[in-house]
Design brief:
CATH class of the largest domain: Alpha Beta
Number of strands: 12
CATH topology of the largest domain: Beta-lactamase
Shape: globular
Length: 437
Amino acid sequence: MHFLRSQAARTLALTALLLASASLGARSAAAEALLLVEADTGKVLHAENAGYPWYPASVTKVMTAYVALKAVKDGRISLDRLVAVSPVAHAQQPSKMGFAVGTQVTIDNALKMLMVKSANDMAVVIAEGVSGSVERFADEMNAAAQRLGMTQSSFVNPNGLPADAQVTSARDLAILTRAVIRELPEYEMYWRIPAIKFGKRIMRNYNRLIDNYPGADGMKTGFICASGFNLVATATRGGRRLIAVVLGAPSGRARAEKAAQLLERGFGGNALSWLLPSLGTVDALQPIHAAPPNLREDVCGKNRKRPASESDDEDDTAGPPEADQSSAYAALNLSMRARGGSLLSPQPPSMPPVVVHVGPARKPQDPAVAAAKPAAKPVPAPRPAAAPAARKPAARTAVTTPAAKPATTSARPAAASAKPAAPAPQPRAKKTSAAQQ
């Protein structure tokens, strides 16, 4: 009897699977693309439309950062290299930092602005700093894609702004993300910065999983009207890292929720996984030969209550993003859906906002700063030997000297003999100056 019940349960589950698959086939293939992959093994845990070509939008910047950091690792450039904002960089459309032509930025700071602010002008700054021009950098991007087996990807710019020839797929993005994780582990900080601070401005990462989903540690969002809202997200729990790719979501909030749902199911396991066919590895996913879907009317059409944008993470026009009932995966995993609300909630901050700036690199180990630190300690030594009356003028002189040096020179005959105390304020000024550059 137990055996018959078990067989009946399997039959019902298989029927549900077949019905869901048929429903999925009846849907428009351009609805969205979803992919969940194990980072270490490349094993595919879930795939929907993963082989369809797609406009990558700003997810392009994962490849931009990959090519730039490979150049750093290979010794072609350094993170401290200064690159000037060119007229081409300045002319890029938002999202961008908006620096004036001629402003100098290090590759390091440009990368941080690229990954957090999704700055299109900084993508061009990086491209020109690495390869000399956008065109030559795009050639490097395409060479890297070919080497990695990204057979559906082509790039013409480093930022993902609309271009017919700028194409990728969920499959290719997962392959790229695995390469980033395996080949560039020393630069993992760039992918998980929750916010940057420029002057008094704090700019939060558009990837809402960072510091809102337990274990989230990357990677990049993207949006143009033609592509919808895209996200490549990574998370690690118990030493196991997963990659979720969402392409074509209707809003910023929806893409974050869908990625969180995929990751949650991957970490939680699947009691009915034996019913699902083996999907193999991400490299073995079959590319689909078709034109990329254009979602402009759905995402940016007249029916939308407010204009869509990359910063649309708080968008509430689409309603709660529910699991797709026509998905074969969803049909067998309804019990694993988040109950009673979002999977995203504030987590303890992983790090404070990372300070970025224009101009040369500022480092604690710079010679000027390093020289100032030991000089600050001997300052109290001469003070006990000096009379209280002599100590006061010395303090005043130290403050007024930079402002009116000629006036104070004649009033300091005794200061010459007490010269050892004079260098004390100088290192302090040098230290303050270095911190304010």
